[in-house]
Amino acid sequence: MINRDFENYLDSHLFALKIRIKSLQMVHAAKSSHIGGALSVADLLAVLYSRVLNIDPKNPLWDARDRLIFSKGHACASLYAALSYRGFFPEEELEGFGQDGSYFLTHSDRKVPGVEFSTGSLGHGLPFACGMALAAKRKGKNWRVFVILSDGEMEEGSNWEAFLFAAHHRLDNLIAVIDYNKMQALGQVSDILGLEPLGEKLKSFRWSVRDIDGHDHDQIYKSLSSAPWHKGSPSCLIANTVKGKGVDFMENKLEWHYRSPNAQQLDLAIAKLKKGSHA
Amino acid sequence: MRKAFIQELVAQARIHPDIFLIVGDLGFSVIEPFVEEFPERFLNAGIAEQNMAGVAAGLAYEGYRVFIYSIANFPTLRCFEQIRNDICYHSLPVTIVSVGGGLSYGSQGYSHYGLEDLAVMRVLPGLTVIAPGDPVETRLALRDILRQRGPCYLRLGKTQELKVYENEPEFQIGKALILSEGSDITLISTGGVLEKTVKAAQELKRKNISATVLSMHTLSPLDKESLLKWALATGRVMTIEEHGAGGLAAVVSEVLAMAGKPLKFVCLYLRQNEIDVSGSQEYLCRRQGISDENIVQTALTMCK
Fold first, then answer.
1. pLDDT tens digits, residue range A196-243?
2. Are B193 and B151 part of one and the same domain?
3. Which burial class, exposed, middle or buried, applies to A183 when counting CB atoms under 10 A from its CB (0-12, 13-18, 19+)?
4. Chain A residue with minimal CA distance to B83?
5. Residues of chain A positioned with their CB less than 8 A from the CB of B46
6. Residues B108, B137: one domain?
7. How many angstroms separate the CA of residue A202 from the nearest CA in chain B?
């Protein structure tokens, strides 16, 4: 059951818009980086936190909750924004993002309410989630574990150990979501250490795989709310996304893996988002 | 030590329903009693140590007290970042059990020697680091690990280490055990070389040298109090370990250097550039001076 204290944001498009605007403001204020990946994952987070996850923001460690592991920790501005708007902590706390003495680190940190697991080094989230999913199976619990991965981090060997593991142990309570924005730190994934055919690889690892538009909320919702898609198989959603999505001058531009928008760029970006939003 | 560990783990698992054992496809003829009695709390994670450490952290996060069991470098160096980030940073109750510390795997070669594990594990914040001296200390260490929460590293020998203790001593993590009290020199050992150290002290006694023997089974947190007390009382300190640079010798050096007192101090540890031939554990250790005879000779020189 989804908590119904969230009526203001049941519209996931409005939720996504707010996540994007807040992420831009946070990255601008902190002069931090990774806004491109924060924008590409925003729709996935918006749908998960508004319509899919069974959670209670007033009780972040409620035993029966669905778990979400954000393995692409560098894009956590959007995760923190989502958690705040979902009610885990007041919006004002986000002003600490990346500031001296704050626990809002610019790679997701467990001290932030709602963050289950600190990440930053890639390839750690999926094995940890496998442990959680195995615990649920052994204890007979029926909550699910979602993991959001970047495409670049699929190059880490630890993930492929975990893909083997999850299928072998029939962890159908585990759902991996790959934010496939096709870019990594120094260029195109396909030029650096290509993943294709990604879906075929995962299927051959005995995962149940779906390939969708990672900005289409209906597709995201239908896929994630209905997982597991095959009893006994872990699910992987390949979400095809655009790095920098929603801000035209950031879209598919490598430099926005690093740059922080200045005041003028921030205003322009927010205007572009508002103009282009479905909300 | 391996057998003592598993026997005690089985006994404790009957009391603690949250104990969970993970092996990295190793432990043939050792782990079977646990697997038979607690199949629902056992997992062979396969030959995939990074995932194994991450899975252990996930299980511990969900309420299990997890023990990872593997050989020498495989559950330590191979997945060091998972231990650092996933287990230690999250303060999870995972105990990494590494069998075959030092040169236990004798002729099997460099890949199987645990020479750096204590050095790298002891620098991780919040990680308790224990190298028991014999099967009795192993059992007692395991019981004390279960009294605390938080991550732990437990380094075990492989072969049938002799029981040093006839009766169970009062064991406490972070508190050195005093096997004999003497006034001429303090011999400090960690891990399975305790037996050699005790033998050496007995031989020294016959030569009229009275030695204090400390089993420094816990490297982190270190029992600085006992260390300083006996170092200052005897004026001479020797550390003995079946480990390379950075282990017991280093932690003791740090404390003694800061104490700022004039002391004679010698460290016996393994020099990695001298490990390049096949041989039994005993042979390889002897070649490097990790033997009761060399402890005696070194002590005699220091006491001249």
1. 999 999 999 999 999 999 999 999 999 999 999 999 999 999 999 999
2. no
3. buried
4. A124
5. 161, 164-165, 168
6. yes
7. 17
CATH number of the domain bearing residue B233: 3.40.50.920
Q: What is the arithmetic mean of pLDDT over B293-303?
A: 98
Q: Distance between CA B243 and CA A57 in Å, rounded?
A: 49
What was the pLDDT predicted at A16?
A: 97
**Chain A residues within 8 A of B86 when measuring between CB atoms:** 117, 124, 127-128
Token pair, residue B1, equals 């030590």
What global pTM score does this model have?
Answer: 0.95
- Classify the phi-psi angles of A114: left when phi > 0, otherwise alpha if psi is within -120 to 50, otherwise beta: left
Q: Are residues B26 and B115 in the same domain?
A: yes
The CATH number linked to B125 is 3.40.50.970
Residue ranges making up the domain that contains B253: 177-302
Question: Residue B5 is encoded by which pair of tokens?
Answer: 């560990």
Residue B166 lies in a domain: no
B136 in the same domain as B32: yes
Give the H/E segment covering residue A268: helix A263-276
Query: What is the band of A1 on the pLDDT scale with cuts at 50, 70, 90?
Result: very low
User: Please, which residues bridge with residue B97 across strands?
Assistant: B69, B154
Q: Say yes or no for a CB contact (<8 Å) between A135 and B48.
A: no
Find, among A160, A166, A113, the residue nearest to A136 by Cα: A166
Cβ within 8 Å, pair B90-A110: yes
Q: Count of CB atoms within 10 A of residue B99's CB?
A: 24
Sequence letter at residue A267 = D
Give the ipTM.
0.95
Indicate the helix (H) or strand (E) that contains A131. Answer: helix A125-139
Number of domain units in chain B: 2
Residue B89 forms part of a structural domain: yes
Q: Which residue has the tokens 């042979």?
A: B283
Please state the φ and ψ torsions of residue A160, each to the nearest 5 degrees.
Answer: -75, -30
Q: Do B53 and A127 touch (CB under 8 A)?
A: yes
Range 136-155 of A in CB contact (< 8 A) with B: 136, 138-139
- For A119-129, how does the pLDDT look when each residue is reduced to its tens digit (9 = 90+)? 999 999 999 99
The residue among A173 and B159 whose pLDDT is bigger is A173
- pLDDT of B267 above 50: yes
Contacts of A168 in chain B (CB under 8 A): 46
| Cβ-Cβ contacts under 8 Å, B61 against chain A | 116-117, 128, 131-132, 135
Residue B262: burial class (beta carbons within 10 Å; 0-12, 13-18, 19+)? exposed
- Cβ distance of B55 and A131 shorter than 8 Å: yes
Chain B nearest C-alpha distance from A139 (Å): 9
Fold of the domain built from segment(s) A7-276: Rossmann fold (3.40.50)
Q: Where are the domains of chain A?
A: 7-276
Taking an 8 Å cut-off on Cβ atoms, the answer to whether B51 and A133 are in contact is no
A205 CB within 8 Å of a chain B CB: no
Are the CB atoms for B177 and B142 separated by under 8 Å? no
Residue B119 lies in a domain: yes
| Alpha-carbon B22 to chain mean position | 20
DSSP symbol at B129: E
* Nearest chain A residue (CA) to B56: A131
Q: Examine residue B104 and state whether it is found in any structural domain, yes or no.
A: yes
